[in-house]
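ARCHIVE CARD
Drawer: 12
Card no.: 0347
Subject: one protein chain, sequence and derived structure
Cross-reference: see card 0346
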Amino acid sequence: MLIRLTRKLAECVDGVDLSRSREGDVLDLSPREGELLIAEGWAETCDAARPGAAVGSAPTTAAADSAARLTAEQLRRVREQMEQRMFEQQQERRLEDRIREELHDAHARVLPPTERDEPV
């Protein structure tokens, strides 16, 4: 599968070695690796023909293409759900912190000044 690397922030992304690649390079990866990088937002599909490859040297079936697209779509949906849950959990956490601080302040006592606290 041909993909174009749209960004590269590490030498190894999702288990795919990108140490010899840079942003904008066209890579020939397995369908699983290519779809994974696309679903994660690291790459996009590339429709350019692979140089030097014989026509029909890697036949693909419609069922395999459909399964790969389905898997990529599932990965995209799962990633979106994870991002949404992380955002919701942060909002809930902030509310918990606010409630905890209010409860702490409600139980706080102010101590009267001592002789040490008064200026000389």
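Annotation on reverse: The helical segments are 31-39, 62-107. Confidence is low (pLDDT under 50) at residues 49-60.
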